Automatic annotation (TrEMBL):
Coiled-coil regions listed: none
Family classification: Belongs to the glutamine synthetase family.
Gene3D superfamilies, per the entry: Glutamine synthetase, N-terminal domain, Glutamine synthetase/guanido kinase, catalytic domain
Species of origin: Actinomadura fibrosa
PROSITE patterns: GS_CATALYTIC
PANTHER family the record matches: GAMMA-GLUTAMYLPUTRESCINE SYNTHETASE, TYPE-1 GLUTAMINE SYNTHETASE 2
Protein name: Glutamine synthetase family protein
Keywords: Ligase
Length: 503
């Protein structure tokens, strides 16, 4: 594994190199009145956990890590603990090492900086359950074949007046209405300023359907960068909300009788070493626009002489104008969607959201610009399709660990390419409005309607288990079964209440 300056094994020279980089970064941060750094990782339940260090200890943290228990991998959303075959109990220790090239001041938390962390064992080897490392490995497997992926998460959240455990929407204007911007204009202004100051390239912000709900879209980047940015955006939203005496919820189902929060994933496959399409030089953003390279855009899209990565989702002879590789990548994801839900819709509450005719993508089908298909294909406007065409996975939500979710998606797409899969006929209607016979005739299957069904599909999926590794795959299933048992017999209202403020 080579990413963010983190080698596969931390030996003496690697530790010295990381320490020297961190010492320089610490001097810069101290000059900006930063006093502490939050090192974050996301657990299997999708909750961002942290350990923090004073800036003066950053050099040591980078070289030698910060200690933490492996047991966090089996925490449930209520902080109770289960045990799996590979982790559980009070023994053992891991070391958190900050990703120094993702180290940024958090404008929403004055005096604080943020760095995602990679977890190592004490012997200097990468922890097999570290989701960031798993995603790095999947990206490297694609790169070995001359391919890369650009990705971004749409972040949906609902903002509530503070005080109490219930949800009380902090704004009341109509869905997508300008009224909601006016109601909370100061809050949204401060959010955009904080994100910009933290280096996040925001593409758009708008009110969403449910009361108090908003969505923000950011520029696409490499998969690890996209997951890092998703964490930073959410924590910035959380901090700015608190500063305005409000509370943000990213739960899949904030209230049982309203639409939930999705975390749609946008993906485009890029191929190296071929003639670049003419026209746009942008990268696909979270809403399918050509839109810059985001925080992690360190490489040029086009190499000298007009050759470089080409978007495989456009300019081909395959379905909807995809290349053969682009179509196979999409088909691989579509084929594995039932199993992918165990990482992308990982909470009991996820299945209160994942219902037909709510733009949640409850059926395993695809279609150009079809917002009811679990896999929406975004073509982009005429003239920018070479840079804009991408896939949107609509059935994922805010309880997902973004690193695990992207690692599984890349593995599914990579398998699709290797198997030379093709897509079925696209669906251009709301599949929920078709009769069961009509859906059967068109090969449209509903996605799992419960977390238990998704876990069963995941455990039977050898491709995903091989990609994630047996330790991670077993832990995912263990944690999911733990949440199922925790909420067994709970009403939808009780499920929403337990989940509301956890993610």
């Amino acid at each position: 594994m080579e990413d963010s300056g983190h080698p596969a094994v931390l030996d003496g020279p690697a530790r010295a190199r990381l320490g020297a980089r961190a010492a320089e970064a610490a001097r810069r941060l101290a000059g900006e009145d930063i006093v502490a750094v939050a090192l974050t990782w996301v657990d299997v339940s999708g909750i961002t956990r942290t350990k923090t260090v004073p800036v003066s200890r950053l050099e040591h943290a980078a070289a030698w890590g910060v200690g933490m228990s492996p047991v966090f991998d089996v925490f449930l959303l209520d902080d109770s603990i289960v045990s799996g075959r590979y982790v559980g109990g009070p023994t053992g220790d891991l070391r958190l090492h900050p990703a120094l090239d993702r180290l940024v001041p958090m404008a929403a938390l004055p005096g604080w900086a943020h760095a995602p962390a990679t977890r190592y064992a004490q012997d200097g080897t990468v922890h097999p359950l570290d989701a960031r490392a798993l995603l790095t490995r999947e990206a490297a497997r694609l790169a070995a074949d001359g391919r890369s992926v650009r990705a971004a998460f749409e972040i949906e959240w609902a903002v509530s007046e503070s005080g109490g455990d219930d949800f009380s929407p902090a704004c009341h204007g109509p869905a997508y209405g300008m009224t909601r911007i006016s109601e909370l204009s100061g809050y949204l202004r401060d959010l955009l300023k904080a994100l910009a100051a933290s280096g996040v390239a925001v593409e758009q912000l708008h009110p969403e359907y449910a009361a108090g709900q908003y969505e923000i879209s950011v520029a696409a980047e490499d998969p690890v960068g996209a997951a890092d940015t998703a964490v930073l955006v959410r924590e910035t939203i959380r901090a700015v909300s608190m500063a305005h005496d409000m509370v943000a919820s990213f739960s899949p189902k904030v209230e049982a009788d309203t639409v939930g929060n999705g975390a749609h994933v946008h993906l485009s496959l890029w191929q190296d070493g071929t003639e670049a399409h003419g026209g746009s030089e942008g990268l696909v953003g979270a809403e399918g626009r050509a839109g810059g390279e985001g925080r992690a855009g360190r490489e040029s899209l086009f190499a000298a002489g007009g050759r470089g990565p080409v978007n495989a989702m456009a300019g081909g002879d395959g379905a909807a104008g995809m290349t053969a590789a682009g179509e196979a990548f999409a088909a691989g994801i579509l084929e594995r969607l039932p199993a992918l839900l165990a990482v992308g819709a990982p909470a009991v509450a996820s299945y209160l959201r994942l219902v037909p005719s709510h733009w949640a993508g409850a059926f395993a089908c695809w279609g150009p610009e079809n917002r009811e298909a679990a896999l929406r294909f975004i073509t982009g406007a005429e003239g920018e399709r070479a840079g804009a065409a991408n896939l949107e996975v609509k059935c994922f939500d805010g309880a997902a660990n973004p690193y695990l979710a992207l690692a599984a998606l890349l593995a599914a797409g990579r398998h699709g390419i290797g198997a030379e899969l093709t897509l079925p006929e696209p669906i251009g209607v709301d599949p929920g409005l078709l009769s069961p016979d009509e859906r059967a005739a068109r090969g449209i299957e509903p996605l799992p309607s419960s977390l238990a069904d998704a876990v069963a599909a995941f455990e039977a999926d050898t491709v995903l288990r091989e990609a994630l590794g047996e330790a991670a795959a077993d832990t995912v299933a263990t944690v999911r079964r733990g949440e199922i048992a925790l909420l067994d017999g709970a009403t939808p209202q009780e499920v929403a209440a337990v989940t509301r403020w956890r993610h």
